[in-house]
What does this fold into?
Amino acid sequence: MRAMQRLIPVFAFAGLLLTPAVAKETATPAIDPAAIQVLERMGAYLRSINTFGVRASDTIDEVLDTGQKIQMSSDIQLLVKRPNFLRANIETDRAASRQLFYNGKTFTLFSPGKKFYATVPAKPTIGEVLTNIEAKYGIAFPLADLYRWGNDPDDIAAIKAARFIGASKIDGQLTNHYAFRQEGIDWQIWIAQGDAPLPIKYVITTTDEPEQPQYTVNLKWDTASKPDDATFTFVPAEDDIAIAIVPLDEVKSTK
It folds into this structure.
């Protein structure tokens, strides 16, 4: 999911506000502060929700050696309780299902089908554990950008072009649709209208590859969710098997 990983830092900012009709790209696109404010408002709202659930349905293009694109999909359910509780249930159309648990003290990766699980000590906050787990073990938490929006305003410099496309309805939800461009990536986002400016859909296109693979995700939010703390701690069954996660630097040293 290379496009997704490259996009994470920039979702909180940028935009060129145009009329609702799709306009032709100009030779020297600008960045409109009004659209920056829209994304800043979305990021601020996300950070203000202490507890929530999200269900995401996504598709991603994988490019074969022949250049043909193959589309794969997954269904993700997230539970978040800031600042230090996180859980994800992931079902894909190809790989075995897996679950991720974080309770402020430990991080656990569990494969229900194979009964394997691995638990490691974890950093004390969601932001820290997402960065540490990916850097140390190569495990990317799904939809990690939802927790990072708005944390690095310097990434506004990465935006090369942006525009407001217009109002759109996604699964009955009224949204505003924006399109953005940066080096190697085009991305679009649909933000809910009204007092709860949540991201409802986004699309990422990798433009520096000839096949231009895409990643698309639709989000359904539950901001009334109130999970208890026990939900975020993995408790193995008698027949579950503990295994070790090998850090990336140890994997590289054996090659």
